[in-house]
Amino acid sequence: MTHALTETGPRRSRRAPSNRRAKPPRRRRRVWRWIALGLVVLALAAGGTGYWLYSSLNGNIKGVDLDKAIGDDRPEQLPTSGQNILVLGSDSRAGANASLNTGKVSGARSDTALVMHIPEGRKKAVAVSIPRDTLVTRPECTKSDGSTLPSAKRVMFNSVYSLAGPACVVKTVEQMSGVRMDHFMEIDFAGFKGLVDAIGGVTVTVDQDIHDTSSGLDLTAGTHKLDGTESLQFVRTRHGIGDGSDLGRIGLQQKFMVALLSEIKKQDLLGSPTRTYKIADNLTESLTTDSGLASLTKLADFGRSMNGVDPATMETIMLPVAYDKTDPNRVVAAQPQANQLWKALRGDETIPESAKKSPATGGTAS
To answer: Does residue 141 or residue 246 have the better pLDDT?
Structure first.
């Protein structure tokens, strides 16, 4: 399954209208720049008040030193200028997340995990979704209290976060793939809901009725504009689609990501400083990154390096998985497809079509 994605923030078109009927040049928007660069420009332009806003937003971002947390046992960086970023969605019920009716579950897990690969030249990108129910070998990790979590086989991928935090998730992904993660970003439930509400909702179209008493989602087939709470239900639903597994939910998450980024692309965020600040405050307060991105200026620099990514060429796929022979409620990486996928990313090469096909589809079309 592939979908075109957009990652955007404002920027003026460099091409002037070619004739009288041509539309006025539109600002190209890139989400990476919008998250950081637009905020930096806005803050600096606002003088003393802007500096206070900048400092406030900058202080919201939490950083993790991956090299210190993981050590030297890491894959080599790409032999090119390509980049790999692990994007995590945390399902923590702590703090502001406790009021979102997401259930009473202790701790937190990586409810969503995407490996974003931006090849050399940074003109396109691909996002690889890792199903949370995938059985993996967890490497030895250092927990936040300094104690050691021993290695273990056949553990659920989403349990790694709750036991040892995001650095251990990065280490697990690196060891299962052989692909080095240059950066990671994590956002929690409250940040996701706040982002959707701040942009005024997201419009999605579904092909079938979805009724999930677990997530609370109740949609008829057709087009709907979802607010933050409904959007959270949408990306979390699993019992109302396919076979009730996480694989069906990944399809909804990919659909929603396309819709969310498309909505952001439409909006003139720098044209509305109040809305920009509201979005940024919600986002940065719920954002954790590696130390290499843990400030607005670092995010801005990273955003500028991604300006050439063409949204039209961005796609999302799922890590090829097969149902586990011992426990059919779990999945394992399908071979040789998964190895082909990771090999392509390690070499910064084009992903073969065979590596995008998953034997397990969750009861939905692949």
So the answer is: 141
Q: What is the pLDDT of residue 85?
A: 92
Phi and psi (nearest 5°) for 67? -60, -40
* Distance of alpha carbon 269 from alpha carbon 264, whole angstroms: 8
User: Residues with Cβ < 8 Å from 93, sequence gap 6 or more?
Assistant: 100, 102, 103, 104, 105, 106, 108, 189
List the one residue out of 269, 266, 257 whose CA is nearest residue 231.
257
Contact 255, 3 (CB under 8 A): yes
Q: What is the mean pLDDT of residues 187-207?
A: 86
Angle (CA) 244-249-254 rounded to 5° is 160
Q: Evaluate if residue 333 carries a pLDDT over 80.
A: yes
Question: Is it true that the peptide bond before 311 is cis, omega within 30 degrees of 0?
Answer: no
75 φ, ψ (degrees, to nearest 5): -65, 160
The answer to whether the beta carbons of residues 44 and 50 sit under 8 Å apart is yes
